[in-house]
Amino acid sequence: MDDLLRDFLTESAENLVRLDREIVELEQTPDDRELLKSIFRTIHTIKGTCGFLGLERLEAVAHAAENVLGLLRDGTIQVQSAVVSDVLAAVDVVKEILDGLERSDAEPQGDDSALVARLQRWLGDGDDDDPAALEALFLNARPGARPTPIPAPATAPEPSPEPRPAEAQASSVPQASAEAPSAAGKPAAEPGERSESRASVADASLRIGVSILDLLMNLAGELVLTRNQLSQLAQGDDDSRYHLPLQHLNRVTSDLQEAVMRTRMQPVGNAWGKLPRLVRDLAQASGKQIDLVMTGAETELDRQILQAIQDPLTHMVRNSGDHGIEAAAVRRAAGKPERGTIRLDAYHEGGHIVIEIRDDGKGLDVDAIRRKAVERELVRPEAAAALSDAQVFRFIFEPGFSTAEKITNVSGRGVGMDVVRSNIERIGGTIELSSTRGKGSTFRIKIPLTLAILSALIVGSGDQSFAIPQIGVVELVRVGEENRVLIEDVNGTLFYRLRETLLPLVRLCDVLRVPHRESEGESIVVCQVGAHRFGLVVDEIFDTHEIVVKPIGRMVKEIPCYSGTTILGDGRVIMILDAPGIATLTGVTEQSERAGDQSGAGIAGLSSDEDRVPLVVFTAGGETPRAVPLALVSRLEKFPTSSIEAADGRWLVQYRGSLLPLVAASPELDVRGDDERPVIVFTDGTRSMGLAVGEIHDIVEDRLRIEMESDAPGVIGTAVIVGRSTEIIDINHYLRRASSEWFGAQRTSPVRSRVLLVDDSPFFLNVVGPALRASAFEVATANDGAEALERLERGERFDVIVSDVDMPRIDGFELARRVTANPAWAEIPILALTGRGASDRETGLSAGFCEFLPKFNRDVVIEAVRAAASGAYSQKEVTV
Amino acid sequence: MIYPADPERVRRGDAPRSGYVSFRLADQWLGLPVVLAQEVLAPQRISPIPLAPADVAGFLNLRGQIVTAVDLRIRLGLPLRGEGEGAMNIVVRDGEELFSFLVDEVGDVVEVGTDQIGEVPATLDEQWKACCQGVIRLERGLLLIMDPARLLNPVEAAA
């Protein structure tokens, strides 16, 4: 039997018992208005529900009775036994129809016109203008006419299609309305045929308070634990006389636990009940044609989880209909059927429930999301380009991220996919998104069957044990002698070099401030939190257990690291760790947020508002690692040493049809020493040179902050790169060397352009300064506009000014105005750096800025400075 | 020794008498309304909770129910119990939750007429005064009657 119908019958049976009693009471106390109201409500509920289920006969009778009761309630007609008899007769017919429904799933046939007419007589005695009465007359004038509960215009698309045969198990909702009327044509069973031996649905079901079920659940959980304790005691003693009873207890306990769990289970279709209507309304409002197909509605879930996913599901279906499915004309033009389809599928998968929401709409625009992610500075442009589509889609789940071009009244309600994600993660679930442009999108939600019992990893830190729910654990890495070196400390943040990525680490003992136990090996529990991963370093990993989750006491509820408590088999109480909470508390996932994390580029320990620079790390005849910004490198090559020609103690190699001069990165390096020589090729204008190095180690991303300036030739200074002191080489030095060695007098050392860099952020001065220096500029810095003006007034000469916009004292705009206004400086091109996009552009250009440069794009900045230095903005031509 | 609480008798109040479980913290004897004390337990295994407030000693497992143990020595600003000195537990229910007060020693139930309960001395330490309902003069000294709800819900948290 259909679930909705079953629920309806159960509910109605309870109501009818009360109704009988109340109507009889009413006869004795005709003035009891509360009683009248209660009776009216009961009949009203039955009427309303049967309209929904398509039970025509029942609805006609209930409707007529309701009208009469309405008049009684309003005092229009007086309570008298004749009217009570008629209402009771109607209640009897209602009961008869319900009985029939229960036996055959269909309304029994019968002619109620006499009864309906009798009831209508009462309406005539009342106010003839009563609209309810008129409606009743109208309805009943057409026996068999099925009143449409929701009037829909003829053009309205079907809210939900009848499931195709292939989807025989499709959702109960469309079936209920589709099947019941068609079955109504069957001959009705005679009332006398009623089988008394068969327990009716109403008798077989019972309403039980959820609190009692929760209590049962709890007790069953306790029994499981006690059983475990007993089993442990009896372990290894097979001759024990407790052995057999224990085995029995074991089985019974498991069965009991399962049975109690089942009481809390509800079909997932219960959370879908409202969706057909939602899709129908949405289709109508947007003028689209949308079918909703649902399969697996009978898949059962813990009611707590069901409640938790109801809103996210609704949101996603709404999203699919609103943003996914295109208008019919657009679909036709794209060669797709005019009717779009949203599919909802639920099924079991390895101890979890998977729910997929799939639409055949326009799919997601990967590039738009990528652009938006860059715009919102969630990822740097270079890293964004390297991200796979799947990685780009993850941005959808970031707070405040919406690509909808226009906010509609359907989806644009401020509930973002980030809320969906956090709701699902709160119940230990995961969500993934895949999409093909033009083909549609699929959301895949994976959730546990129940929250009450979950599979957890038991870990040790210090002398305490903790449980980590397994659903958030991606993998475990044991740290021993051989891979300890892969743990790197970058400015106090630990990273583990896990395959292609740098995994930020937190030590559990540090987070929880428990003493660290010195042990041979630690382990890394790799946790997934949203789109991010981090490693939780624990002293020991013991085992996995099915644990019964207990709520956390109110005194420690505020601590974000825990999601609950549990009792182990040995009776110990341990805390269940909450990986998202730990991530938030420590900010560990922020370490990787900006870099687009799994891009493989590697991430260094940086707070999220700082920029990173890709660097080529190499050595040259010594241990000290050296690095050069990747942006300056044109290629990395390896030449067979046999191809390197020596002339006058200098080296040349045939490269791309011309001769490439090579310069040794260090005097100690024997350029033709090994079989092959790695070379970093730099190009400056039309000239190229190769820097011969010992070994190219890696390309890493890290902050380029010169900790110590250097006087050594060819070295700008020392920076900490991925945790190691690294010399940042001055490529200009080598370019000059190559050119003086090879081009001799052709080109004298160029007059370096002087750049004044103005920014109140020392960090930024540290990033852009060396980068500009490395690009052959002389760089002076000023901390704000006032200081910049002081330097200018002192008579210092600059070829280019690069200035931040927001600064204390004198800001960028004011600086630009003053520079432009002063005839002595008016020719100096002044470039603005901004992290805010184009909003200030108009103001800036009118203030005298030549160009607005994105603050975090070094290449663009350097290119623009170079262009400005070579006169591209002379006469202050404004480029827009 | 503890006698099972008889709420009926207390409530009946034919003579307005009430009983208090007496317990000791360092040198001071205190009391809790016996109707509110669910049971008294010998020293238990308590799992500490990292990052918890100092007075929350940890969780203990009472027949499958999780009980939050509150160390009254810390709660009331007394020096810590020495190493190896196990604490007795007085289990109370507050709302839906169970709590256990860790005390040094549990004594008799003291039953007195309500007229024998004196005012809280004005000289009492503020921290104590905030949780104290009254005092009973006994031969061996003063018995401070504590309000479990206020011990569990510090005033600053309620404010």
Care to describe what's here?
The complex is a heterodimer of chains A (880) and B (159). With 880 residues, chain A is an alpha+beta fold. Chain A has 6 domains: 3-149, Up-down Bundle (Four Helix Bundle (Hemerythrin (Met), subunit A)); 209-263, Helix Hairpins; 268-448, Histidine kinase-like ATPase, C-terminal domain (Heat Shock Protein 90, 2-Layer Sandwich), CATH 3.30.565.10; 453-599, CheA-289, Domain 4 (OB fold (Dihydrolipoamide Acetyltransferase, E2P), Beta Barrel); 613-746, CheA-289, Domain 4 (OB fold (Dihydrolipoamide Acetyltransferase, E2P), Beta Barrel), CATH 2.40.50.180; 753-876, Response regulator (Rossmann fold). Chain A is 37% helix and 25% strand. Chain A has 26 helices and 35 strands. Chain A has a 6-stranded mixed sheet. Chain A has a 6-stranded mixed sheet with strand order 27-19-20-30-29-28, with helices on one face. In chain A, a hairpin with a 2-residue loop joins β25 (676-684) and β26. Chain B is mainly beta. Chain B has a single domain, classed as CheA-289, Domain 4 (OB fold (Dihydrolipoamide Acetyltransferase, E2P)). Chain B is built from 5 helices and 11 strands. Chain B has helices at 7-12, 72-75, 126-129, 148-152, 155-158; strands at residues 17-25, 28-33, 37-41, 56-62, 65-71, 88-94, 97-103, 105-113, 117-118, 132-138, 141-146. In chain B, the strands form 2 sheets. Chain B has a 6-stranded mixed sheet. In chain B, strands 3-6-7-5-4 form a 5-stranded mixed sheet. The radius of gyration of chain B is 15 Å and the shape is globular. The model of chain B is unreliable at 1-5 (pLDDT under 50). Classes of the chains: A alpha+beta (880), B mainly beta (159). Chain A binds chain B through residues 218, 221-222, 225-226, 464, 512-514, 550, 553-556, 559, 561-562, 565, 567, 571-575, and chain B through 45, 47-53, 56, 58-61, 63-64, 66, 68, 70, 97, 152.
